[in-house]
Design goal:
Elements lengths: L15 H11 L4 H37 L3 H4 L2 H37 L16 H6 L7 H11 L1
Helix pairs in contact: 2-4
Amino acid sequence: MQGRAAPPEPAGGRGWGHTEARKRMARKLTKKQVEHLQRRLMRERERALRTLGQLDEASKESAEQADSDSYSYSDHMADLGTDAMEREKMLLFASKEGRYLYRIEEALRRLYKDPENFGFCHSCRKLIDFERLDALPHARYCIDCKLKEEADAA
């Protein structure tokens, strides 16, 4: 079996890895796109913080109401159960929003720490489509890798 000869080494002696890196860098997000994503992340961060503040206030009001002496004697047991369920639901919403805030802040850290590599998939290292990043600015994976991850988890 005869094999093909290897292609000649690129000029400059830097190897094929350098050419691949150069190609990858040519396909990066533009400065305008990065600035847009930064603004989107900051808006999402502000919204998440505002939501967490509202949930905190509602939780405090609910706790104060539950602590009042007349509260436990005036309501029916079913009402007490409903109120407990509402408090639990509020805590779940706050927990979900807190995780979302963490992902947003993690994306901002990646953006500030290494803006040249922001927007590249953490798995395959290909550029994530700008449309995906615009819809989900904290995305760490391209759509193909994310679908594969979800299929593997199922």
